[in-house]
Amino acid sequence: MSKHTLTALACLLAGAAICIVSCKKDTTPSASVNQAGVSQATLDKISALGFSTADVRKFDGKYLVEGDILLSDADLNTKANSPFLTTAKEEQYRTNYVVTGLPRQITVRVASSLGSAFVAGTDTAIARYNRLGLTLTFRRITSGTANITISGFNQGPSGGFITLGSSGFPTSSGNPYNSILMNTNSAAYGSNPNVLYVGSVIQHEIGHCIGFRHTDYFNRALSCGGTATNEGSAGIGAILIPGTPSGNSANSWMLACSNGGNRTFNANDIVALNYLY
């Protein structure tokens, strides 16, 4: 679920599954800074780009929004120029930029510091994409410079949240976002990570890297529970993909919150992927 985050931010509930994005929202930041110390000026820039300003946090020198999307200062100074979203239904959405130069193979490298579950999870995610027969394919490499590098960080829960992973969106030059960060802290995936769960998160983050936003963009409560929350005004890149449903798309790989386990593409996801790639 720069994943959405899925880093998605995860809400830790005793005995409950981990949500890949934040389940708790604060829609009324203070006039100068929010609770995480992000200035109102920065929040205004985030809002102008069409992202939610709820629960924005500083992360690795950038800003973590919507649970698992990292935005840099350069991103915040980019002028929004995509159409505004007017529909109020749950459909597949893409960003303003997608990967170009098709057909194309994207190379993925897993940092040596990550454990075997993350390597196997990456292979699982790659295999799921490649089985679709898209013009965009993926290959894991073990040396050299990759198009997407998956690396780790160790960060425990903070304020009731834990970051599972994060990524960003394609560049204006048509390249995928080049980094996925995965949390190696035992509070994120446990001491013996489940490969299918890890693979599902990586699959989601790759989705962001190639231009997908959350399926339940309009109403995060569909996957996260709680109060209905719209992720933003869609000033940048929340463009409806034709052929995807106007109703709830259950179990989509790009839902804002994880089910805490294995999740792959549903039929509507495949329609969306084939439309773009």
UniProtKB/TrEMBL annotation:
Family matches, as InterPro entries: MetalloPept_cat_dom_sf, Peptidase_M10/M27/M57
Pfam families in UniProt: Peptidase_M57 (PF12388)
GO biological process, one term: proteolysis
Stretch forming the signal peptide: 1-19
GO molecular function, one term: metallopeptidase activity
Keyword Transferase: no
Keywords: Hydrolase, Protease, Signal
Entry keyword Zinc: no
Top-rank taxon, per record: Bacteria
Protein's name according to its UniProt entry: Protease B
